[in-house]
Amino acid sequence: xxxxxxxxxxxxxxxxxxxxxxxxxxxxxxxxxxxxxxxxxxxxxxxxxxxxxxxxxxxxxxxxxxxxxxxxxxxxxxxxxxxxxxxxxxxxxxxxxxxxxxxxxxxxxxxxxxxxxxxxxxxxxxxxxxxxxxxxxxxxxxxxxxxxxxxxxxxxxxxxxxxxxxxxxxxxxxxxxxxxxxxxxxxxxxxxxxxxxxxxxxxxxxxxxxxxxxxxxxxxxxxxxxxxxxxxxxxxxxxxxxxxxxxxxxxxxxxxxxxxxxxxxxxxxxxxxxxxxxxxxxxxxxxxxxxxxxxxxxxxxxxxxxxxxxxxxxxxxxxxxxxxxxxxxxxxxxxxxxxxxxxxxxxxxxxxxxxxxxxxxxxxxxxxxxxxxxxxxxxxxxxxxxxxxxxxxxxxxx
Amino acid sequence: xxxxxxxxxxxxxxxxxxxxxxxxxxxxxxxxxxxxxxxxxxxxxxxxxxxxx
Lengths: 398, 53
Prior knowledge:
The complex is a heterodimer of chains A (398) and B (53). Chain A has 17 helices and ten strands. Chain A is of the alpha/beta class. In chain A, the strands form three sheets. Chain A has a six-stranded parallel beta sheet, with helices on both faces. Chain A has a two-stranded parallel ribbon with strand order 1-4. A two-stranded antiparallel ribbon of chain A has the order 2-3. In chain A, α13 (301-304) links the parallel β7 and β8 (312-316). The model of chain A has no long low-confidence stretch (mean pLDDT 97). The A-B interface holds A 78-79, 83-84, 87, 89, 128-131, 133-135, 137-138, 141, 148, 163-164, 167-168, 194-196, 201, 205, 232-237, 240 and B 1, 3-4, 6-11, 41-53.
């Protein structure tokens, strides 16, 4: 008798969570972070899945059904541009509007002199981060929202109203999407909740990378104080979205704060003291964090060892997965490490060979989740993603 | 936005809001809870704009 979807879900949840606890499940769980790949596979444009989240959800569910993965993200094309357009945010290039319809959405960082936060505004941010965001930051990143001392306009009022309602609608729909994944295909929703490191947030959305790099040299004390001020808020946001069942991890998206983007000293003096306590507090609350380590974090592997065993899953992008496993493997689960370039321009046989190399080198004792290195976009070939999936399901048995 | 001490999860603290209200004759705890729950939505909006979108 075939398993019910709920039985399948429970089986997959057990497999996925066991691996993330650095234990050995029945086989290696497969959890690819597929973004615009889902559009390619389901026959949509990037514009369709970015601008119409119901199409994005359908594409994800089609992939979940056809590839039979253990876990997937409900919508890895996470920026619904209907919402960002409602607020009239300046920093996104929307497929089909600002860029060609088959290019994934882009983040456009302003030039240093037009950074969303000015270098002299650190004290304002430190004193009242939430007030700063509403009063100063939001009017700068939105073409419609005006600062407090200017007269409210029709578009200002609408941007706040539509933005707030659109966000609630989207989050509600994401909850339904996760339920549909469970009911239709027995697929686990891979992550729950979002975290970014304080220094990353400063680089991403406030000072910009160049501005932050300058500030680290010219006013490191202010940068540290700003990171400290952001910490409790970023923890609050992470906790608010974390899995109430405490099964799947919060995802921390790590962008620009590894060596050589910043110096080893700045990492040790600013990044780590303002990131580690957040990870520890999430763990104290029963939540794992998936460190989505974009780029190369080899220089910092030994630092991550300071975290409590099992508290994080270390996802490998451009880091050396074998070194990551050597340094961290006794304490933490590893995920990813299959190069996106291989999925894009390699042959299925090469994909299988690389998966074998990773499984042999990293996954023999459990504690590994199969995934590509970075999120899978529409440059990946379907036959290569299928090769990754089929090979892992066959060779990844324990 | 007025200058005030804002803890994580809060845009306008109940302690500030209650100063604007007449003496509450009914359930003070209900009034506080509902204010804080809805206020939290405003907080999530701005922080998700920063972190997620």
